[in-house]
Structure formats: C-alpha cells, structure tokens
Amino acid sequence: MRAYTTLNGLQIGQYTATQSGPYSITTRTTMQYGSAVVVTATQSGSASTSYTIQPTSPVSSDNQLTGRFNCAQGDLITVVISSSAPADQPPNFIKTAINLKHGV
User: Of 29, 42, 48, 70, which sits most exposed with the smallest number of CB within 10 A?
Assistant: First the structure.
C-alpha cells in the first residue's frame, strides 16, 4: 500500500492500514510564513509522532515530519494539521504533502 495526498489548510487526513506490518510516513508542510503549526501523525489513537513548526521570518518555510508505525490490519493512521493562530486559518495558506508507505 502506498498513499500520497496533499492537504490544503488545517485539516485531518485518515488512512486505514490494509495490511499488517511496518508503515512509514513522511509529511512536508509548506507555508507562506511561519507561525506555530503542529503536525501530528497518530496510529489508532495510541502511538504518535509530532512536529511543531516554530514562528520564523516572513518567508516561505518547508518542514518535514517522519515516523514509523507497526500496524495491524485495519489500524487507522491519522494526520492532523493544527494551529491556534488566526493567520493560519485561510484554506490555501498551508499545504501538507503526505506520503504513507507499507514496508521498510
């Protein structure tokens, strides 16, 4: 199984593990200028990995999160892009590419 998608804005992406075994996930978040955006990947509500994008200068920033999960068939992998800053709310302000792959 391999899933590749892009989320626009602050969204949630969900993927179901079609096979048991290791899954690797990579997300790349791009925004016009930095604020405190948090990217979290969670396996069926338990194991998780997250990355906080710290405020930076008013230039484009590109940040990556990587993680590995050992899933049972049917486990849900959820990617959440969140922020409490009003500046991050426009739908096309933040783009996150997600690459989820079964196997090593």
Answer: 70
Question: What does each C-alpha distance from 5 to 8, 36, 48, 56, 80 come to in angstroms?
Answer: 10, 23, 20, 26, 13
Are 56 and 33 contacting, i.e. CB atoms less than 8 angstroms apart? yes
Q: What is the CA radius of gyration of the chain?
A: 14
- Give per-residue burial for 18-54: e unless 16+ CB within 10 Å, then b: eeeeebebebbbebbebbebbbbbbbbeeeebebebe
Q: Please report the DSSP string for 62-88 in residue order.
A: EEEEEEEEEE-TT-EEEEEEE---GGG
